[in-house]
Each structure stands twice: as structure tokens, then as C-alpha cells.
Amino acid sequence: MNNRVRVLIVDDHAMFRSGVRSELGTAVDVVGEAADVDQAVAAVIEHRPDVVLLDVHLPGGGGAEVMRRLSTRLGSADGPRFLALSVSDAAEDVIGTIRAGARGYVTKTITGPELVDAIRRVSEGDAVFSPRLAGFVLDAFAGSIEISAVDEDLDRLTEREREVMRLIARGYAYKEVARELFISIKTVETHMSSVLRKLQLSSRHELTRWASDRRLL
Amino acid sequence: MNNRVRVLIVDDHAMFRSGVRSELGTAVDVVGEAADVDQAVAAVIEHRPDVVLLDVHLPGGGGAEVMRRLSTRLGSADGPRFLALSVSDAAEDVIGTIRAGARGYVTKTITGPELVDAIRRVSEGDAVFSPRLAGFVLDAFAGSIEISAVDEDLDRLTEREREVMRLIARGYAYKEVARELFISIKTVETHMSSVLRKLQLSSRHELTRWASDRRLL
DNA sequence: GGCCGGATCAGGGGATACCCCGATGGTCCG
DNA sequence: CGGACCATCGGGGTATCCCCTGATCCGGCC
């Protein structure tokens, strides 16, 4: 295909925009520029670019705000792809930007040819990250499981205590747990005492949160 | 650096393993092979590869099981990077594999040179995805916010009810909520009745799970 | 003004939750 | 065999949860 990728450059520094524009040269089709959130939203709607090069620290709410506004105005199908371009390599910036809908995140230390390649790949639906940043995203994504610290505590529970714990954490009343496990309510209470003591919790509410945080439900 | 990347190939089909091995040629250092979960875990501990090429549909629990077992035996620091290699491009396979800790996911339609490049990039900490699959991961990540269906229920709560709800869901006792908001326990009870009625829940335990599922904590 | 919804409070009561004490069996182990 | 750990129960108590009815005050709306 000979169609060049249509790109919109969003950054609050005019100097940087012209730098990017000259680096990109004729490899892509720069259809416009924007310097803040409002301009960016308007420019996307007007020019319908394939890829938006989006500065993360943008006046008026940051690049994430641009994506949020556009996601409500445009269907996710026909909207542009967003490639975040930032001086920051802080994890919270990267994660926040991805959560907001960006398909890639590269730092401004990138070279011109690399940026052209990144734009191409994003326009095709691929995800592009500066090598060091990819770890942040996947760690944050996989990290929501968090098994490591759990086992130390969880392993101290006996098999029966774990069964009771699981049901209690799901919101079962003692009476219901008793019926479910064919034991007396008093036995359930005994197990629960052990569970709370071993996990250093003080109520079933804390237990529910504890289990919920660790996705044991 | 001249050090070749040390690679372990995990797949239950011997034919496929030898195919991969010949495709990789001398570009990387294949230190071993494994055909199921147990062999894979043992081989990683024995050979300490830099990158594990991991089949997703593996007898004995799948590739995810390999990563789970190793994550408990090895510190996350010195463990290998995992690159999932699968015939499946189903979203649930991709998401599940990434959640389990893989740093990349490519389909078996990949060419030899592309695979070598993918292995190199994963070994350097980059994330590698077949273009079409990257969207799954990022959509799932960004989509974990899920505001859409919540507002219908959540919007029916008044401001005060939301405050009470948030504290209750966090495990606060009525008494503690009352102190926190400078109101009477009886008022807290009234608000809670409204909250439970409007959300069609019947106890604070269900509320905790409800809020937890929606990340309102 | 009358109506309605929200926020505030009260009394009372049945059901739970959590804790204290103690007790009985069973297994496993030195 | 005695000690440990576990699973199983009980009595009794206090605090908490959840619901019921009923009340006052305020602000918006027709």
C-alpha cells in the first residue's frame, strides 16, 4: 500500500512540534498540529488522522484527557490510534497513559527513523514501547495477581481453614458455611478465629478485602 | 555484547521443537527442550535460560502453569523472560498468558528471523506481540476500569450515600463511619438501608464484593 | 402553600459476628 | 505413651448488623 500514515502532532512546545515534523520528513503525512487539549480534540475531529502523537504532559489535563474526551465523542472503532511521546519514563505516567487508551509510549529520546517505524506499527494496531517501559506495563498488568507475599500467610492455614476462609470471604454467613461443609456453626467459628489470628486480621470485612486484593475469590 | 541469548524451547510436539531449533539456527543458544510442565520447570531450574519459548497449550496445565510454579520457586529478579508461542490468537489465551507473567506472545505463523528478533527483544526486557494481538492486551488493561455499567446503579446513590457506601465497603463499622462523617450511627444505618436497597444487595458483605469488583475502594 | 426527596436522628428487636472458656476424638511422631 | 496439631463441638456473652416505624428540617418544584 502506498498510502502514507496520516499523523497529528500534539505538543505544547512549537519548537518540538517542528522538530518532530522535520524528523518525520515525507515518510508520513503530517495533517496537523495542536498545542493543548482543546486544539487536539478539535484537530482530531477535523483531520481524522490515523495516528496521534500525543505529549503526556499537556496543558489542560494531559494527553490522557485528550483520549478520554475523544473516546466519548468517537466510536472506538473509527478513532485514531494514540502514540504517547513523553520526556517522562515514570511508571505512573506510562500506566496512566495506557489505561487511558494509548497504543504505545515512547520517550523523546527516540530517533527519527525509530519514530517513523513506531508510528507505522501503531497505525497497524501493534503496541510500541521503549524497551525499558514495556516492563512497567506488563508488571502492572500481571502484578495485579500478587501471589508472592500471600503464600507466607496463606500457607499457615490448614486445609479446612482455607475452605472456611474462602466461603466467609465470599460473603457466606457462618450458618451457610456450616451447611455447605456439613459442620456445626461452632466449628466454623473456631476455624474463623484461627484464620483471623493467623492472618492478623480482626474481622470478616478485613478478610473479604484481604482475599479480594489477592483474587482468592 | 557477543553473548548469545540462552533459550529453552517448551512444546509438546517434538516435530515443532526441532523446527523451531533449526529456524533459530546459531542466532541464539538453545540450551534445552521440554515437552510438558514438569519438564519445563525442571529444565529452567537446571539450565537457567534467558528466554523460555513457551507453548500456551501445554499438557499439565498450560504454559501459564509453568510460569506460576517458577514464580514461587525463583525470585522474579533472576527468573527467565517468557515468550509465549501459540497457534491460538484467542483473546482469553493472550490475556491469561500475560497475566501469568509472559513478556510477549507471538503466533506460530511467525517466521524464523522474526522469532529471533522477538527473542532478542524479550531478553532485553521489551514486550513483543504479534500486531493483531497487542490490541487485546491493551484493551483488557484499559478496560479493567469498567465504568459503563456501574453508573446506572451508582448514579442512583446520593452524595452522602456514596460516602457511607465507600467506608462500609472498606470494612468500617457503622460506629466508625459515624465518627468519620460526624453523624449519628442511626443516620449511617438509614443511609446503608438506602444503599443496599438501591444496589439490590442484602448485606455489607455483598457490598464489599460489589465495590471491590468495580474498583471503588 | 403543598408535595417530594434528601439528610438527619431515635427506639426497639431479631439475627449475626466475634470472643471467651472448655471438651472430645483423631493422627502423627519421638 | 505423652505431646503436638487438627477438626469437631458446646455455653455464654457483648458488640454489631440490619430492619422496622416514625420523626424533624431543609430545599426545590408545580
Give a verbal description of the structure.
The structure is a homodimer of 217-residue chains. Chain A has 217 residues and is an alpha/beta fold. The first copy, chain A, folds into two domains: 6-142, Response regulator (Rossmann fold, 3-Layer(aba) Sandwich), CATH 3.40.50.2300; 148-213, Arc Repressor Mutant, subunit A, CATH 1.10.10. Helices cover 55% and strands 13% of the residues of chain A. Chain A has helices at residues 14-24, 37-47, 62-73, 91-100, 112-123, 131-142, 148-154, 159-169, 174-181, 185-199, 204-213, and strands spanning 6-10, 29-34, 51-55, 81-86, 104-107, 128-129. Chain A has a six-stranded parallel sheet, sandwiched between helices. Chain A is elongated. Mean pLDDT of chain A is 79; it is low at 144-150. At the A-B interface, helix 4, helix 6 and helix 11 of A face helix 3, helix 4, helix 6 and helix 11 of B. The structure holds a DNA duplex (30 and 30 nucleotides).
Sequence of secondary-structure elements of chain A: EHEHEHEHEHEHHHHHH
Cα(first) to Cα(last) distance of chain A is 50 Å
* Residue share in helix of chain A: 40-55%
Query: Largest sheet of chain A at a glance?
Result: 6 strands, parallel
What is the percentage of strand-forming residues of chain A?
5-15%
CATH architecture descriptor text of the largest domain in chain A: 3-Layer(aba) Sandwich
**Number of discrete helical segments of chain A:** 11
Low-confidence stretches of chain A: 144-150
Q: Total domains of chain A, how many?
A: 2
Shape summary of chain A: elongated
Strand order of the largest sheet of chain A: 2-1-3-4-5-6
